[in-house]
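User: I need a structural model of SAM-dependent MTase RsmB/NOP-type domain-containing protein from Prunus yedoensis var. nudiflora for a docking pre-check later this week. Nothing fancy, just the predicted structure tokens so I can convert them on my end. Input:
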Amino acid sequence: MAHVLSLHVLLSAETNRSSFSSKSLKLDKRTKTSISAPRKGNLNPSHKTQKVNLEISPHRAVSAVRLMRIEMGGAFADLLNEKGKGSGANEMGYFMCHDANTFTRMEPLLLQIIRIGFYEIIKLDMPPYAVVDENVRLAKVALRHGAGNMVNAILRKLVLHMENSSLPLPKLEGDDRTQARALATLHSHPVWMVRRWTKHLGQEEAIRLMMWNNSDPSFSLRANSGKGVSRADLVTKLDVLKVPHELSFYLNDFVRMKTGLQMVIQAGLLKEGLCSVQDESAGLVVSVVDPQPGESIVDCCAAPGGKTLYMASLLSGQGMVHAVDINEGRLRILKETAKLHQVDGVITTIHADIRTFSDNNTMKCDKVLLDAPCSGLGVLSKRADLRWNRKLEDMEQLKNLQDELLDAASLLVKPGGVLVYSTCSIDPEENEERIAAFLLRHPDFCIDPIGRYVPPDFVTEHGFYFSNPVKHFLDGAFAARLSRAI
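Assistant: Understood. Predicted structure tokens for SAM-dependent MTase RsmB/NOP-type domain-containing protein:
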């Protein structure tokens, strides 16, 4: 239900549209609304404000500005950046017009308001008259009267298409590039990503993957055995909260849930350190490491620390996990969480870049985990913004970084020890190809097949761990276990 609000939107724009930014947003329940509303040209904070009295939805207003901030921060750069190579040209042109410039020239906040209206009408099946009315009101308050007229015209045209069952959609026809652009629009993914997956997986599997990415994600909880909490204890607490859940098929400390995470948070289960939110795919990477009491382990890119904490809980108070990370703030949080989970006695935090740390340190450990920075293409169901943050050119830079980190991590492995390389990516260039390149540079390492550590369904033909989102209903992840010669 709409509320009478005071909405002060202070927006500024440089000559270049990409520098447009939101400077201020204030919402309260006073009856007056103050807006900056120049009629033409770029929005300028020096314009005088005018007072209006309109009813708008606070949730819709906040959503529009948040979307704009995400976009201006780069989350949707692949769609809107004039230098981008994504699917921006076809994003909404299929519904209203086929002139790509219509939407790329549109003010960012206006574009977000229209996007919200489209989503509400097409996906949420809300009453069209209400959606049109409230988004028109928001455009008039946040921008100007003419912007409201444009929203009215566009959304009414969409409603007409919906009523006549004539919503235009791209067709899967033409060459590979044309089909990829159509799939990018139909399934809301960047064109470069669609083409990459179609090449590696085939079109049918690529479509299934995109459908998975667009579905509501499920979450897993790990019972904190380091604090003496068993999975049975966690299940009892979930039953009391009446949170639907099921036991993990693969890991004894994990439960899986589709809904109810907010109830778990509000009940204080995370705050008390009784459990952690951790996907089973990440838990299986720890299974590949196979931490044993008394071992010394290095976690090379440890923060935020999910795998660090899990490994520490498996040491039964004997041994040490050296958590190395370049981000001091995130390491501090990890250290605090380790105390909460009562595993701080077997965790040492080290603020360093693993590349310089390994060069300047004689430490040699039983096991080294490199959970490398990666594209994150395996976790898009939980990170919807990530698909638009990534660009094709990022992949080459990531591969170079991964090679450098692998070389550095290998220096910390003692003779006869183990190096585990993992990512949350499903891309072979970040996974199998990085291992192949590493083994050519380091003949003293060899593949240690992971069949003893994870269920057979996760073992690839080359002896690596791989979780497939479509097949396993988990985040996508990869891990290779490498043994160093004695």
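Before docking, keep this in mind: Confidence is low (pLDDT under 50) at residues 1-53, 74-95.
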